[in-house]
Amino acid sequence: MTARKLPAGPFLAALLTVLTVSSCGTTGSDGGSTCKVRHEIDQITSRFPSFKQLESTSWCGIEPETDNSRVPAQANIRLVGVLNAVDDEAVLKELNDSGLQFKPAAPQEVPAEIAKLLPEGAEWMMSEQINKRITEDLYFGSFYYDKRSGQVLFDCSNPHRKDGPAPSVTAGHPAGTLVG
After folding, report:
1. Residue 180 in contact with residue 17, Cβ under 8 Å?
2. What is the pLDDT of residue 28?
3. Stretch 60-66: mean pLDDT
4. How far apart are alpha carbons 94 and 98 in whole angstroms?
5. Which residues contact 24 (CB under 8 A, 6 or more apart)?
6. Dist CA 147 CA 157 (whole Å)
7. Residue 43, SS3?
């Protein structure tokens, strides 16, 4: 009997990505998800390279509330945070590009730990074209641009790295760690 080699296509890469983005958040004693703010720039630039070099970022990975069953479930990590691009003029220039069809938008359900870091009086704008360009329709993601400061608020589910090969399945990482 000979073994057949199955094609490793985009589906397999996406599945591996979902499985490796593990333990990004912590769960509070009440069973609810919490947001532990982190500042590693490389975790964000590897997922959103279109913003090029970042001056700073504050973000958290949140695991959804789960029941106490012992059956392993597919990872579903929400990555939410704010970034400041070194070239904030490029961000503001995109806002003025009529082809990107930015519209006023109010971010929803931003964790308090991130909300307190957002600029006061922000005028958030969102473009479906920008969302599709960044996510490549591989995962859910919303990117809100502030007209005043040039900051970008991101809110995504299971964003994958774009700076290397598909990640490998890894277990046993401490809570709050993004892998791959």
Report:
1. yes
2. 38
3. 80
4. 9
5. 60, 61, 62, 63, 77, 79, 175, 176, 177, 178
6. 24
7. helix
Task: Check residue 51 and report its DSSP letter.
Answer: G
Q: Which contiguous run of DSSP H or E holds residue 102?
A: none
Q: Contact 124/106 with Cβ under 8 angstroms?
A: yes
Q: Which of 51, 44, 41, 46 is nearest to 150 (CA)?
A: 51
Helix (H) or strand (E) holding 6: none
Rounded-to-integer distance, Cα 80 and Cα 64, Å: 13
CB-CB contact of 144 with 124 (8 Å): yes
Q: Structure tokens of 108?
A: 């929803």
CA distance 60 to 27: 13
* Model confidence pTM above 0.85: no
Residue 107 has pLDDT above 60, yes or no: yes
**Whole-angstrom Cα distance, residue 81 to residue 62?**
11
Residue 19 has pLDDT above 80, yes or no: no
Q: What is the pLDDT averaged over residues 69-79?
A: 68
